[in-house]
Amino acid sequence: MLCCFRPAVQLASVFYLSFFLFVTSLCWATDDKLVLISPHWEGIEEEFTRGFKTWYQSRTGRQVELEWLDQGGTSSDMRFIEAEFRRLVDGINIDLLFGGGTDAFIKLAEKGLLESYKLPDEQLKQIPKDMYGIPVYDSQYRWYGAALSSFGIMHNEVLRSRLKLPKVHQWKDLTNPKLIGRVGGADPRESGSAHMIYEIILQGYGWEEGFSILTQLGANVRGFSAGSNAIPKDVVAGQVIYGMAIDFYAYGAIAQQDDPNKIQFTLPPDATVIAPDSIAILKGAPNRAVAKKFVTYVLSKEAQKLWVLRDSDPEGPKRKGGLNRASVLPALYDELGDRSVVDNPFKSNLSPIQYDPAKGGSRAKVLNDLMGTLLIDRHKELVKTWRTIHKSKNQAKREKAIAILCELPLTETEAIALENQFSDPVLRNRKLKVWSKFAGDKYKRARNALK
Question: Taking 90 as the threshold, does the pLDDT of residue 15 lie above it?
């Protein structure tokens, strides 16, 4: 019996030793972690995951795992972050917000939801503090521009020429009634880049004239998509001829065409902005040390090359078509020369408007809901009224009807004052109902003005 017992003891000992070694090996193999929320498309996520893992291991000797979250776009990510912080005041178990315009980051900073992290001095001095009056990074180091973005109009030149449609150079050109159903646009309640385009037009033309342009432009839109990434695809496929787009979507579409002249992209001189697409560490980041390293990496020369180099370049991205973004490092363009697929925005001949990010942030929610209620939710009625107006041969009546069509239920001052109150869902819903009724009434009055 003893002989039988001894092998059993030995077997048990081997089992427990093996189990101990297995558990220990798991502990040894545990990776550092980073949780990011980002509206970026999968190509950017893949490239920066690959690049950071290599960079991190070379400097720490450890591996790191990245978990990417997305609620469906910049606006949705912002709503999620703010809602989570109302529920979890000290932190929401997310380390970084990566992607989105300065308006969103300024708002989060003002609410105390971002943590300050100053880059090493040697690295920081390579980044300009501002560009055309727009800050490239926060003075308190709560956010940094990770790349630069511009916003413009892309169009399918082959179909435009074939259909004998007018050329478009300015935002205002998109209000031409010949373009009804030919324009691609996105819902600002779902798309941060769409919101930025509409805010740029407002700041370029002023509240009333700007909204008049947005109304007429909106009447030409075929249908407002949830995401801006659908617009380039529609332009390429000919579903629309013109599309309002952020630069890298347009450049990405152009890079995939056999005919380089098929898809063209224009930065409208009437209201051009070159703005940072940003990154920040969120308050209470559970992996703060790793998050700091990720910010350091993203602003490094090594990572910035991923934005501007071709996929065939040994230092460039592996993703087919590349990332086609502008770097925030001015010296990088001189170093790379023709290797960069993006023109140096710091030496642009354009005269961008003096965009005010604080103003943009001060009315972001109101603008999104105002556009949503007046132009998007009642889009069929808007288009019907627009068509009816341009069937009239009486110019005086047309002008009167257009003036009615473009009326607003509140002033710019009132919109800014209302912004902070929109966190109250009861008040917000009441306003949306009032604005919806206002829209229906003015469309009816505009059509009656033609009689």
Answer: no
According to DSSP, the β-strands at 242-246 and 144-156 are antiparallel
Place of tokens 């037009």: 201
d(CA 258, CA 277): 29
Q: How many CA atoms lie within 13 A of 397 on its CB side?
A: 14
In tens, the pLDDT along 193-231 reads 899 999 999 999 999 999 999 999 999 999 999 888 899
pLDDT tens column, 405-423: 999 999 999 999 999 899 8
Distance CA 115, CA 349 (A): 36
Closest CA to 151 of 174, 130, 182: 174
Q: Write down the pLDDT at residue 23.
A: 45
Give the helix ranges, DSSP H, for 239-394. 247-255, 288-298, 301-308, 330-336, 357-361, 364-371, 379-391
In whole angstroms, give the CA distance from residue 105 to residue 138. Answer: 9
What is residue 232's DSSP assignment? H
Q: How far apart are CA 202 and CA 191, in angstroms?
A: 17
Instruction: Write down the number of H helices and E strands in the chain.
Output: 19, 12
Among 233, 240, 202, which residue's Cα sits nearest to residue 364? 202
Q: How many residues does the chain have?
A: 451
Contact status, residue 342 vs residue 250, Cβ threshold 8 Å:
no
Six-digit token string for 298: 């993203």
Which of 149, 254, 136 lies closest to 191 in space, CA to CA?
A: 149
HSE at residue 331, side-chain half, CA atoms within 13 A, is 10
Residue 360 structure tokens: 């943009």
Q: Quick one: which of 352, 329, 305 has its CA closest to 128?
A: 329
